[in-house]
């Protein structure tokens, strides 16, 4: 049997369980009367979770040589040694909600955290942020155990999924502008905020009534009738992915505001849905704009040029599958949303064109006006875009001027390229809403 790699990062659940076990041991000594007794455990958990981040993060106690009101613990980026989040730690008997808006947390957020602070009462973690009015407000929290008494067990019971949620919370709030380049990390952060919105909606008893206008927008705009079990995740991922699509086309990706999204894309259904989410009833019950603001902030942390390069300029089409895989893998599997590399789509389209010409005697292949293309699960349009590019190239190869080749491609879109899609987020941001990819 191969030996385990002792240097490999712990999983989030392993790190959190080890932390709880260590906290339990300290409590069992009966000598731990102050929160400083638990700093090594807090440091260990935050550092273990930070080892899986990019860039990596580590937690340190108050550095030597610094006097004054310095944070109990702080998170730093390993490569740059930049402080990215101050941490206020108190004992397990302290209320987390009161701690996150305390005067001390506010001082840390104002002086060291760029308006943000992470607080913990050992059994839970919360993020506070200074809002536009200058008030420190709680933005998100994760409880690792049910209550303080749970910490006295020899092996405290970790709440299911809480460790992974804490890791996602830290990733979401510790990033810096234009520093993110990994599409998988961007997908995970956007999915994190999407799940927060989903949980808020599903926890509201009358969510079906409040979502009725949005259901009507989907039905009237896209002729989509969603099953009840798919309604909330479909609506939420449409919000989040529509936001992403607007950011891709924004003039200043590092100063992107989600309220501008409806002006960035020709997406009437998305605009209607945003209009509905801005109603006082939705804001009051679900806190939608707060979540969308947080998601937009994630996008300002992304190096858009590097991100687009990772998808060879096709991020709008190809990012959807990794995003949905992080947001709701069951929905992705059920609806068959799978990433198709552009090279594979191009090859398959070329093979179809070859057989049309050689086996069926259609000289112009896919460019022939008699050929109708049906895509029963068009998604964001990967295959239809490949068909259009192929038509454009083949017409130029046949001797047609570029302008005539482009017009033949446009005619194909109007008359004989047909795609079906049940996911609003995919169809709404498809390039076929307002442009012909590669054939302008």
Structure description:
- Helix content is 51%, strand content 10%.
- It is α/β, with parallel strands linked by helices and 440 residues long.
- A hairpin with a 5-residue loop joins strand 2 and strand 3 (83-89).
- The longest helix is centred in the middle third of the chain and has 21 residues, at 228-248.
- It is elongated and about 90 Å long.
Write the layout of secondary structure elements.
Layout: H1 12-29, H2 39-50, E1 57-61, E2 73-77, E3 83-89, H3 96-100, H4 103-111, E4 116-120, E5 124-130, E6 136-143, H5 162-173, H6 183-202, H7 207-210, H8 212-222, H9 228-248, H10 261-264, H11 268-277, H12 280-286, H13 288-300, H14 304-310, H15 315-318, H16 320-327, H17 329-335, H18 342-358, E7 373-375, H19 382-397, H20 402-415, E8 417-419, H21 424-428
Parallel strand pairs: 3-4, 7-8
Antiparallel strand pairs: 1-2, 2-3, 4-5, 5-6
Summary?
With 440 residues, the chain is of the alpha/beta class.
Head-to-tail CA distance between termini:
59 Å
CATH fold annotation of the largest domain:
tt1808, chain A
| Number of E-type strands | 8
Q: What helical percentage do the residues reach? A: 40-55%
Q: Please indicate the percent range of residues in DSSP E strands (runs of 2 or more).
A: 5-15%
In the CATH scheme, the class of the largest domain would be Alpha Beta
- If strands are numbered along the chain, what order do they take across the biggest sheet? 1-2-3-4-5-6
CATH architecture of the largest domain: Alpha-Beta Complex
Main traits of this protein?
440 residues, alpha/beta, tt1808, chain A, 3 domains, 6-stranded mixed beta sheet, two-stranded parallel sheet, 21 helices, 8 strands, elongated, disordered N terminus, disordered C terminus
């Amino acid at each position: 049997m191969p030996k385990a790699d002792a240097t490999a990062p712990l999983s989030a659940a392993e790190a959190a369980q080890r932390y709880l076990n260590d906290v339990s041991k300290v409590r069992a000594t009966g000598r731990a009367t102050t929160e400083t007794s638990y700093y090594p455990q807090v440091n260990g958990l935050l550092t273990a979770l930070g080892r899986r981040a990019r860039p990596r993060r580590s937690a340190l106690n108050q550095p030597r040589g610094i006097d004054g009101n310095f944070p109990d613990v702080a998170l730093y980026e390993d490569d740059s040694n930049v402080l990215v989040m101050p941490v206020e730690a108190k004992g397990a008997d302290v209320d987390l909600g009161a701690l996150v808006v305390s005067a001390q947390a506010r001082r840390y957020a104002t002086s060291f955290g760029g308006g943000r602070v992470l607080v913990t009462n050992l059994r839970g973690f919360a993020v506070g942020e200074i809002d536009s009015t200058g008030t420190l407000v709680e933005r998100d929290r994760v409880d690792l155990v049910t209550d303080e008494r749970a910490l006295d067990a020899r092996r405290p019971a970790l709440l299911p999924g809480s460790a992974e949620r804490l890791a996602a919370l830290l990733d979401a709030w510790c990033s810096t502008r234009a520093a993110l380049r990994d599409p998988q990390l961007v997908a995970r952060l956007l999915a994190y905020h999407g799940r927060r919105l989903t949980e808020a909606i599903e926890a509201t008893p009358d969510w079906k009534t409040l979502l009725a206008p949005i259901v009507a927008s989907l039905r009237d705009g896209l002729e989509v009738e969603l099953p009840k079990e798919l309604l909330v995740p479909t609506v939420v991922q449409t919000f989040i992915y529509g936001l992403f699509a607007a950011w891709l086309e924004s003039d200043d990706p590092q100063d992107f505001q989600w309220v501008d999204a409806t002006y960035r894309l020709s997406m009437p259904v998305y605009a209607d849905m945003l209009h509905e989410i801005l109603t006082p009833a939705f804001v009051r019950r679900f806190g939608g704009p707060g979540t969308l603001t947080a998601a937009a902030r994630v996008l300002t942390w992304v190096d858009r040029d590097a991100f687009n390069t990772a998808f060879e300029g096709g991020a709008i089409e190809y990012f959807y599958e990794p995003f949905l895989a992080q947001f709701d893998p069951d929905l992705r599997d059920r609806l068959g949303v799978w990433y198709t590399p552009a090279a594979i789509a191009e090859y398959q389209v070329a093979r179809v064109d070859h057989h049309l010409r050689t086996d069926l005697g259609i000289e112009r292949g896919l460019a022939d006006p008699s050929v109708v293309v049906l895509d029963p699960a068009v998604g964001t349009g990967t295959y239809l875009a490949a068909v259009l590019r192929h038509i454009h190239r083949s017409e130029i190869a046949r001797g047609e001027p570029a302008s005539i080749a482009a017009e033949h491609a446009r005619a194909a879109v109007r008359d004989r390229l047909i795609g079906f899609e049940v996911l609003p987020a995919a169809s709404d941001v498809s390039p076929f809403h307002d442009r012909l990819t590669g054939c302008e």
